[in-house]
Amino acid sequence: PRGGGGPGGGGGGGGAPARPGGRGRAGGTAGAFGRPGGKPSRGRKSKKQRRQEFDNMQAPTIGGVQVPRGNGQAIRLSRGASLSDFADKIGANPASLVQVLFHLGEMVTATQSVNDETLQLLGAELNYNVQVVSPEEEDRELLESFDIEFGEDEGGEEDLQARPPVVTVMGHVDHGKTKLLDAIRHTNQVAREAGGITQHIGAYQVQTEVDGDERKITFIDTPGHEAFTAMRARGAETTDLVVLVVAADDGVKPQTTEALNHAQAANVPIVVAVNKVDKEGADPARVRAQLTEYGLVAEEFGGDTQFVDVSATKGIGIDQLLEAVILTADAALDLRANPEQDAQGTVIEAQLDKGRGPVATVLVQRGTLHVGDSIVGGDAYGRVRAMLDENGDQLSEALPSRPVQVLGLTAVPDAGDNFLVVSDDRMARQIAERREARERTAQFAQRRRRVTLEDLESALKAGQREELLLIIKGDVSGSVEALEDALLKIDVGEEVTLRVIGRGVGAITQDDVNLAIASDAVIIGFNVRPAGRAGELAQREGVDIRYYSIIYQAIEEVEAALKGMLKPEFEEVQLGTAEVREVFRVPRVGSIAGCIVRSGTINRNSKARLVRDGVVISDNLTVESLRRFKDDVTEVREGFECGIGVGYNDIKVEDVIETFEMREKPRA
Fold it and tell me: Considering the entire predicted model, what is its pTM?
């Protein structure tokens, strides 16, 4: 029989116990399983939620998508920003911006970096004034976030001390700029340059005597070939005074005018060195007359520009030139700096050294740089482990206007980057990492299409508009920058364009080859060679690697490829490679390399080059002697040992001697 009522239930005889707590009412007692009984009440929306719903209803639609429109207000975005960054600025859903761009004919994702034109197109559609922040302004804002101001106030008059002038030597190719510096420094730098043309920027400090006082002058040697416009422009920006070198037997040339324009744009005083006055046919008066057309009037003609007749090879007029530099600097400039500040300056040159790692040549422009300082230059940072002058001697500090080589950086900075001393390593790392991320984002925003150098002509014949992708590797960053600048200036119309997708300093690595494989890019090696198995990988995958030691050869070949006009030409065919195991010094002969042939065949009288850690140390060598034990031989094959003489003495163990020949190969 169902029994009587249980707890919480109604009565009744003999029945089953009633369920505990029956169905309750709103706000009443707990229902089943302890949950509140009754119909739950709806919470009241906040004012912010109601305002958002109202704004969404008022937002216009583009292609069925509601997006908030602006009223012409400015939106600041960094280069390479994504649609998510844009959406954060205007309070929109990134997915809606993706759909808006789709209706505008652009297919991008919400997190993909987009170029400046796409950002401005989207801004114009939504009635926003999109302002893409320049890298310089973004970098200044980055430093300000760390309470750092580059080029800060140097203090009062009592803090300032006189500093040496920074002088840039400019002029046309082969007018004797480097020989002039050789005469000043009593060195022979020109013998080390490929083809007799300066390929790098060098910075040196010399000491002279003017009116009985010991004075110092810092010289920056910039290459004179037209391809190095960017390097000369950077030299003019970091200099106090320019020495314009003009050959007395050649007169004013196009690169002379170009260098003069850079100097005048930088608004710096100019001293003209009329070189080669000892040569037959020299006419210094003609040079003076030609330069009057460009506003440089000699003092003897009533002007204010000092002209000095010199001969770099005979040492004529060198002391007069140094005196003219000092007098011009004292008369026209107030060269003072505060040596008590943290150092700031410019990276003149940088390279990757096998034993020392990244090495940067920097010019201290203000403050004093000490060993142990934490520095950041571009996206490279580190602690100054050692400082060397132009002679390789160690320094403990570098005062304003002093060029030094700095060791201790984590990477190779770009030539022209600003460097500064910060309080600690952590801050230096944070600044460098944010700069690197910004640069990477900007590069991702660049659109890329795939084509190789050899496929370019057939693509042109098919009537397609293609883009040639290049990866540039060089021995120093200045050469890489100059080569890139020259290649990007090649004008072949709108049929084909050129883009550099990768650049760096040092040997060609497997990462470079893998990037070329993924993007169908051509690798250009300037005074460098593949390291490790990178060469084998490139050969196996068919990656096109071009090697050059003189810059205009690279420019001419790439320009010919862009125009689809590559004619039958000579190509380099490697004959063999030999690894140096021991070096023997033979009197009246020089250095003989004891080698083992690693690949191919080494032939006597064949052309050769010396490669050290993937970098070409010397080119245009010849196998002058080849021996097996005591016997002279004409060739040595792979796996055998031999003695090789190439007429070059700076040979070290583990160097590689490459032999090659030039063969004519008509294009298919």
Answer: 0.61
